[in-house]
Specification:
It is built from 18 helices and ten strands. The chain is α/β, with parallel strands linked by helices. Helix 5 runs parallel beside helix 10 and helix 5 packs antiparallel against helix 13. Bound molecules: 5-phosphoarabinonic acid.
Length: 448
């Protein structure tokens, strides 16, 4: 179960300067109806991610089973949309102690930080490790750099057996990795060409690592399917969760100056869900001078860090709280504690967490800061599947509101191209000249 409570974004609660009038929301009804029809048609093309919940996961489950039976370590090499979804699923659904208790142990090499690389390699035994190289383009520098070192090490240490330790997840036809898979007979899974990186968590990109670490991917897909069904049937703004999330954020942004969208779960297992959401929202909608900066806060920790700013700083934020009703474990404050702190007796940590959320919300309402609360009855595969699809569709729908293409990332490609040029990649000579023109270190202070 998930519940979306948007009472506190409404003008009747926080006033018209910061809040949204119901008539204002409903005035989008024709736009929503038209866009709804377009989205249904686009499910074969741009909105192809909407078909993913209906896939048969059997081949992924079989590959995962093989890995689980043969390896003690599973290392994902990938970055951005090729890793954030897997990290999010693992953290949300397996919690914090997985690697201390279970196999295959799970590690991610996303960055090209040499010390992170060393730490991961130190933790694994290479002869018992499966490396999953995930890259849609097959050419992202970080991924290829980390892979190259691993590839060399595998060959040196395991000889001809190196292939058995590699699984690629990449485009079915294009790119360096696909070519290498074909040439050397390395197992490779397909990323559907119509699905972009940040929308790919429900393809083998996210599903294979999830299944390897014991996540029930069938339930995950069921949750996504449920959200798709609701959102496909319900055209009415107030009954369609994805359109509601998109519209409240759009109106808050474009008409009330709320340029920052904070997501603040009161459950640390959802910390990486926010990282996944941040990429989705930022990379999809940050175009043509438009978009909303997503920011992460964690309850209760950031009550002691950010809430002062959220209440009394610039009036530029809309906040989404995520509340969890039931945790797998909970702990009661004992009865036998000193009188001064006795008010806590009998409460559990979960009670305190959720009471703190209520207290924070009341304080924000008082300061007229718009906020939405999404409540999950618990963190499980079904609910996370719903949340993934909810935000993917809200993002896709927002593309129509902002009149931008949410499925490309030209500004990211630009940075990648300069990097290729700086690394001396063939064909990027003109880019290197452009870099030299652009980049100067003219004003600086250096301290020894
Ligand atoms: O969403 C996106 O398209 C990007 O964040 C990519 O996922 C990221 O740049 C990694 O690209 P690739 O999967 O091609 O290595």
């Amino acid at each position: 179960m998930i519940k979306i409570d948007y009472t506190n974004v409404m003008a009747e609660v926080i006033g018209e300067r910061d809040g949204i009038l119901r008539e204002e929301l409903l005035s989008f009804r024709h736009f929503v109806s038209e866009t709804h029809q377009r989205i249904q048609k686009e499910k074969e093309r741009k909105f192809y991610f909407a078909k993913l919940p209906y896939q048969d996961p059997t081949p992924i489950l079989e590959t995962a089973q093989h890995i689980r039976e043969n390896f003690d370590y599973f290392v994902l090499i990938g970055i951005g949309g090729s890793s954030l979804g897997s990290i999010m699923l693992h953290e949300a659904l397996n919690g914090f102690n997985y690697n201390n208790k279970k196999v295959p142990k799970f590690y991610v090499l996303d960055n090209v930080d040499p010390e992170k690389f060393e730490a991961v390699m130190e933790n694994i035994e290479i002869e018992k490790t499966c490396f999953n190289i995930v890259t849609k383009s097959g050419s992202t520098v970080e991924t290829i750099a980390n892979f190259s070192i691993v590839y060399d090490t595998l060959k040196e240490r395991l000889g001809d057996k190196y292939k058995e330790h590699l699984i690629f997840t990449t485009d079915p036809e294009k790119g360096f990795l696909r070519k290498l898979a074909n040439e050397e007979g390395i197992k490779a899974l397909d990323i559907p060409p119509l699905v972009g990186g940040r929308f790919s968590v429900l393809t083998p990109v996210g599903l294979l690592p999830a299944a390897v670490v014991g996540i029930n991917i069938k339930d995950l897909l069921e949750g996504a399917k449920k959200m798709d069904l609701i959102c496909s049937i319900e055209e009415h703004i107030e009954h369609n969760p994805a359109y509601l999330i998109a519209l409240t954020h759009y109106i808050a942004n474009m008409r009330r100056g709320k340029n920052i969208a904070v997501m603040m779960p009161y459950a640390e297992r959802l910390s990486s869900f926010v990282d996944w959401y941040k990429q989705l929202w930022a990379e999809s909608l940050g175009k043509d001078g438009l978009g909303q900066t997503p920011a992460k806060a964690i309850g209760t920790i950031d009550q002691h860090s950010q809430i002062q700013l959220y209440r009394e700083g610039p009036r530029d934020k809309i906040i989404t709280f995520i509340q969890v009703n039931n945790f797998k474990h909970d702990f009661k404050i004992p009865d036998d504690i000193p009188e001064d702190i006795h008010y806590l007796s009998g409460h559990t940590l979960k009670d305190i967490l959720n009471k703190e959320l209520l207290g924070t919300k009341a304080a924000l309402i008082k300061s007229k800061v718009p906020n939405i609360t999404i409540t999950l009855d618990e963190i499980n595969e079904y609910n996370i599947g719903m949340m993934i699809y909810l935000y993917e569709l809200a993002t896709g729908f927002s593309g129509y509101l902002y009149k931008i293409n949410p499925f490309d990332q030209p500004a990211v490609e630009e940075g990648k191209n300069f990097t290729y040029a700086l690394m001396g990649r063939k064909g990027y000579e003109a880019k290197l000249e452009e870099f030299k023109e652009l980049y100067k270190e003219k004003y600086k202070i250096e301290i020894q």
